[in-house]
Structure to design on (490 residues):
């Protein structure tokens, strides 16, 4: 009730913040241009000769690697730089409400960006007869992937008042989360490591868990993976913010 | 309304606030004086629940700030140092957001925003974004935010910093006027301000309270009856030692 009103107020403010500055428009244009470029040019959408969005979703972990931290980097570092964090956290609002509100606002924004890719769905349906269930699963996976990345960016943005540092640290952590399950890396690892070890390392990767969604498989374990990355990163955000305040 | 008992805040080995105790009742305006770095802002940040104390207890309107932070925060209006504000928001949007977080809805929110806009003379900049405001307007916007829920307790960290003499005068009058019905704590290093607006003065130096009394009582300590002499006599030896 009260918590929800506070979260809603913060979500509204943050979303408004994206659209009153050029960030939202720059991001949306770049995101849509890049998804188009990767899907059709690099991903050989037409030459594949199959009615699916594999060439679309397959690039998302890499595309989000740079774009999601760009959305998340300002969340807390900006509050600290402006000093508004002192206003926000002396309001009758808990730290959790503030964290969840900010996270939800940016996630909604990313969901909007993702929703604006609908022309590829129309295109593939117009050209052929794809399995729209698989496409829907791909979208669900992509949204969860974006959420997990965003939670990590949220965490790194709480660490510093410098947005550039927040961005870079976030990209490095996310790169690790990708590479741990990236096929060339796991192949390399399996040459000298125990296959069990390789499997454990890969289990920490977003690639491993995003793959199922791309094939249209909704596995509870993948949901749990993404939910726990988000939960952990947001919890860490809370700990970091508390730490700063304790001095 | 505000009761502080044996408050201590340590940043590493340094004690920013060292065993500070005082109370502020409704109808009192407490001036918090001290050299830069004396612990004024740190004390205020602890009272408003922004940072937790290392030890000691703060009670606001009967609520322990550590145990019932939300109940305590509801009673307080806070103007932080340097009057922060969301750069990309308009004054109107910002005040509306703060009112929303204060739990004000619909007509009551509109009324509250209009009231503080009038009180702080913000009509001319209502739809300007905060990053385009002059320092005086930015300051008053943040002041307006602290008054939006008509709080019983006001905590203001250098409320007249960066204002021109006319604006200073207005803010001082506002504080004096509100002091009749609220408990107010404000920090400053402008001594005339204390004489103009405060019913009581606390001088804090290097984390400790070194004087506590009415402006008249403190002035009586100096042969010439000037607050400035008293302030210097109490705090200067330490400042010199530091250099």
């Amino acid at each position: 009730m009260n918590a929800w009103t506070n979260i809603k107020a913060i979500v509204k403010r943050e979303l408004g913040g994206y659209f009153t500055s050029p960030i939202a428009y720059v991001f949306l244009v770049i995101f849509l241009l890049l998804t188009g470029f990767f899907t059709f040019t690099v991903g050989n959408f037409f030459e594949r000769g199959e009615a699916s969005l594999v060439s679309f979703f397959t690039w998302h972990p890499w595309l989000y690697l740079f774009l999601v931290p760009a959305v998340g980097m300002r969340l807390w570092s900006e509050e600290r730089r402006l000093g508004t964090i002192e206003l926000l956290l002396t309001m009758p609002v808990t730290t959790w409400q503030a964290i969840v509100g900010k996270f939800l606002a940016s996630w909604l924004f990313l969901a909007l960006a993702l929703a604006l890719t609908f022309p590829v769905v129309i295109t593939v349906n117009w050209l052929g007869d794809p399995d729209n269930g698989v496409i829907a699963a791909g979208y669900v996976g992509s949204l969860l992937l974006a959420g997990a990345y965003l939670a990590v960016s949220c965490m790194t943005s709480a660490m510093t008042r410098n947005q550039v540092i927040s961005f870079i640290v976030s990209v490095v952590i996310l790169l690790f989360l990708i590479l741990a399950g990236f096929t060339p890396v796991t192949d390399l690892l399996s040459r000298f490591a125990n296959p069990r070890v390789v499997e454990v390392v890969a289990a920490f990767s977003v690639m491993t868990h995003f793959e199922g969604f791309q094939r249209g498989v909704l596995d509870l374990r993948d949901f749990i993976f993404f939910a726990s990355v988000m939960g952990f990163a947001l919890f860490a955000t809370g700990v970091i913010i508390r730490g700063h305040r304790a001095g | 309304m505000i009761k502080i008992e044996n408050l201590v805040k340590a940043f590493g080995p340094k004690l920013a606030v060292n065993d500070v105790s005082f109370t502020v009742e409704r109808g009192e305006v407490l001036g918090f004086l001290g050299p830069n770095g004396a612990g004024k802002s740190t004390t205020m940040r602890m009272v408003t629940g922004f940072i937790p104390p290392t030890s000691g207890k703060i009670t606001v309107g009967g609520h322990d700030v550590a145990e019932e932070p939300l109940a305590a925060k509801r009673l307080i209006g806070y103007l932080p140092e340097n009057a922060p504000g969301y750069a990309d928001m308009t004054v109107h949007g910002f005040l509306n957001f703060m009112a929303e977080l204060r739990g004000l809805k619909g007509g009551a929110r509109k009324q509250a925003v209009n009231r503080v806009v009038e009180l702080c003379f913000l009509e001319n900049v209502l739809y300007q974004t905060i990053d385009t405001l002059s320092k005086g307007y930015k300051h008053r916007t943040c002041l307006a935010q602290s008054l939006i829920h008509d709080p019983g307790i006001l905590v203001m960290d250098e409320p007249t910093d960066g204002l021109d003499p006319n604006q200073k005068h207005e803010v001082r009058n506002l504080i004096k006027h509100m002091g009749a019905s609220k408990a107010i704590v404000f920090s400053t290093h402008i001594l005339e301000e204390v004489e103009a607006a405060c019913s009581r003065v606390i001088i804090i130096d290097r984390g400790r309270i070194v004087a506590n009394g009415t402006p008249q009582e403190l002035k009586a300590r100096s042969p010439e009856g000037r607050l400035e002499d008293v302030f210097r006599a109490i705090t200067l030896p330490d400042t010199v030692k530091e250099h």
Notes: Chain A has a mean pLDDT of 92. Chain A has one domain: 21-92+109-246. Residues 21-92+109-246 of chain A form one domain.
